[in-house]
Amino acid sequence: MADEDLSRLEAWIGEIIAGLAPAERRRASLRVAQALRRANLDRIAANMEPSGDPMERRRPRLGRDGKVRPRSGRKMFRGLRALRNWKIDADEDGVEIAPVNGLVARIAEINHFGETATVGRLRDGRRIRHRYQERRLLGFSPEDEATILDIAADLISRVAR
């Protein structure tokens, strides 16, 4: 979704939400946040980026004998795709979906931005560092826009009653 589309959507939703009572605004923003969190976690579980492209696969890991380790091609982000690792901060003014703690935030940050991190140590104590591929974990997709519009339509129908 382009930035100008997102800003128009935000302005339109803002007008709808401005007409609601504070408690209704908070409930509406919570529904939007829950839907976006669920959609993003489903994409993470499917190893898909918000744009719909598949994430770059993991590099195969070699064992001491030089052969590929047996479990090296599995799904990524087993811990990040759990609901308990992402909190929602929703109020009348907006929503924020953020990692629950610093470890989850660091893992997500390393993979989202493609940073370098320590993955182990050699016997002499030197660090083994690896540069991760950039894999967008959180973002908006066209399906998310449709979900937000459905929630807004439900709000309008409730207010019209």
Describe the protein's architecture and organization.
This protein has 161 residues and is an alpha+beta fold. It is 44% helix and 13% strand. It contains four helices and four strands. The chain has helices spanning 3-18, 22-45, 102-113, 142-160; strands at residues 86-90, 95-99, 116-121, 127-131. Strands 1-2 form a two-stranded antiparallel ribbon. A two-stranded antiparallel ribbon has the order 3-4. It starts with a helix and ends with a helix. The model has no long low-confidence stretch (mean pLDDT 84).
Annotate the secondary structure layout.
Layout: H1 3-18, H2 22-45, E1 86-90, E2 95-99, H3 102-113, E3 116-121, E4 127-131, H4 142-160
Antiparallel strand pairs: 1-2, 3-4
